[in-house]
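Summary for the lay section of the report: proteins are chains of building blocks that fold into shapes. Here we show the chain for Binding-protein-dependent transport system inner membrane protein and then a coded description of the shape we predicted for it.
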Amino acid sequence: MPIKLPKDAEHQFNYNSIQQDKLTAGLMLVPALFLLFVFLCIPLVVSVGVSLTDERLISPNSARFVGLENYKKLLGLQIIEVNRFNRESGSEADEFVYKDKRYSKLRNLVRNNAELLGYSELSRFTVWDKSWVIVARDVLFIRSFLNTCKFVLMVVPIQVLLALALALALRRNFIGSGIIKLLFFTPVVTSMVVVCVVWSLMLHQQEGLINQVIASLWPLYDAIDWLNDPAWSLFAIAAMSAWQGVGVQMLILLAGLQAIPNSLYEAASLDGASRWSQFLHITLPGLRHTLIFVVLSTTIFAFALFVQVDVLTQGGPQDSTSTVLFYAIEKGFRQQQIAYGSTVCILYFVVILTLSLIQKKLLGYEK
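The coded shape description reads as follows.
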């Protein structure tokens, strides 16, 4: 006959058991937390400290504290009004307006205003018949950040939509479906350097497979120099990156599809719902949680673009493929400006942290 404990004793036993489990879990977390502290927290604190100095990797001079000067240089932007006027000769010319003063040339404006020293033209735009010029202290960093954003906007939709299409096509097992999944996942576990070398051969202007295939389908096609044309180089890297990483998103979406009960599709079919209607009202709502995770995780990985640029274009042509991480490594190690490179990394960390918090917020809301 089992011994029945009093309620107070049973409650005390359960409490002690829970406390013991918590202690065991805490002890098991200690090694992981220690490694995170050593390899994440300490380097982050050191990077923040270094970013507040002018330290160089190899320099005979000792580092000086400069405060937020590196951050001001990175984020320094000004918008200046540009007026068009007709000269006596009849030709048009620009006139730059800053603090109610007018200058015939942008460099004269910069030289005569101490707060604008070191600024260079980034771009021009027109709004409601008014022209403006954007000047920046570090034009290359701003271009690198914009290139990174362009890459994200290109690769995320391509990769997510392709992964969704593959997941839907491979949802039901059929002869050869396992081989197809393996083929699409193989590039994920292949070294990115190897992938880049193979794609550099495929993207060659004269002998590349891609141009030859397009030329065979379209005889009037003028071969594109994919990696040396500023208009196409970033897109070529985005297409390669989407192809290389689509296997991971495909498997995640496949897992999400398998969590949707088949009874919902059977009931919809009995009610006469079309395949498209089932996709809109069953598949997409059922994948909402998974799609949010896939989109945001792909975005975070896309912001980490470096290897493809370093192997294929080295930031060119004309800085059209320079990215935030490539710029940080270029400044921090190759140009030995370790403090400035650390500043770029801190700003990159802030962007990734913001995206991670958004992901946590959205997934928590869905739950």
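Put simply, here is one thing we learned. The chain has a mean pLDDT of 87.
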